[in-house]
Amino acid sequence: MSLLDFVYYSFITVVFIQVIYYVFLFSKFAFIKQKKERTKKIPVSIIICAKNEAQNLKKFLPSIISQSYPDFEIVLINDASTDDTLDVIEAFAAENNNIKIVDVKNIEAFWGNKKYALTLGIKASKNDHLLFTDADCKPVSKYWIHNMSSHFNDEQTIVLGYGAYSKIEKSFLNKLIRFETLVTAVQYFSYAKVGIPYMGVGRNLAYTKKDFFKANGFINHLKVRSGDDDLFINQVATKNNTAICFSKNSFTQSIPKTSFKDWIKQKRRHISTAKYYKLKHKILLVLFYSTQLLFWFLAPILIIATYKWPIVVILVLIRLILQYTIFGLSSKKLGEQDLIIMLPFLEVFLIITQLTIFINNLISKPNYWK
Length: 370
Hints:
Keywords: Glycosyltransferase, Membrane, Transferase, Transmembrane, Transmembrane helix. By secondary structure, the chain is α/β, with parallel strands linked by helices. The protein has twelve helices and ten strands. The chain has two domains: 3-30 and 280-361, no CATH class; 44-264, Spore Coat Polysaccharide Biosynthesis Protein SpsA, Chain A. The model has no long low-confidence stretch (mean pLDDT 93).
């Protein structure tokens, strides 16, 4: 067998695996229809951990305070901030009787550990149903709590939501950030839909206090600075207790990074937690990423060499058509349609970026949450 023969058959295998992912996994989210939310009036505690977020709280907290929901409290955690965060929180609390303040001081054992601060906030909350977001996030509608909490029932005690990033015109970095967010959401929604949930995002996530204490909180990964959202969900989520919420009124929107350096730093922290996922999740995620990388590496080689190029072109088109179909439908659900026109280019750039981050994380470990 010649080298080109090996590349050719490897390429066929890669395309076959990619087709399986798109047809049997990602299509589960792409073709799903959002069920109509049932009105529920369960008491909800909104948990927000803020570290040096004075300006963001001033800007975004009013959109949470003004939520159209009959029974909710807001637990604001000041995580040892060095700016005016505590003053801002106290000012809001003076005007709103449903705000509870948790002022966290740094202690040596948990210095700078967000999970410690979150644990104190969860303990201080009065309701069993918890809804999490970040200080730099805002709900896109006044029905955010209603939409997310409507998916709670006796069996489903975890709700995965979508945390979008705001759009910046004529910014390639912004498109890349939103594309990575879209890809991640399609993955975790699809995996949850087929019964193997593996993560959620802290910008928009809900679960019960009972689940938290049953799992002993973050104790299994307390020393890992990141992962208060994805590692916890990876630990406790099952096919029976996890629901997904993707109605437009349930989204949150965050401020995206505006420099590659800051975004890379953020993604290094996020990606560093993946090695702690359950083995089955790591295998599935690595296999998909590896075949993505190989697809864009092997296809140009075969086309440039004109080796059985008609078959290669057909296989490339099959994979791209599937990708455009699945991500086109998914992006419509999540309000990210403008990204689809640049899909192949964004995918290649993201693959290269993720590979670079992975290599950097092997060399040096990110050790911060903010």
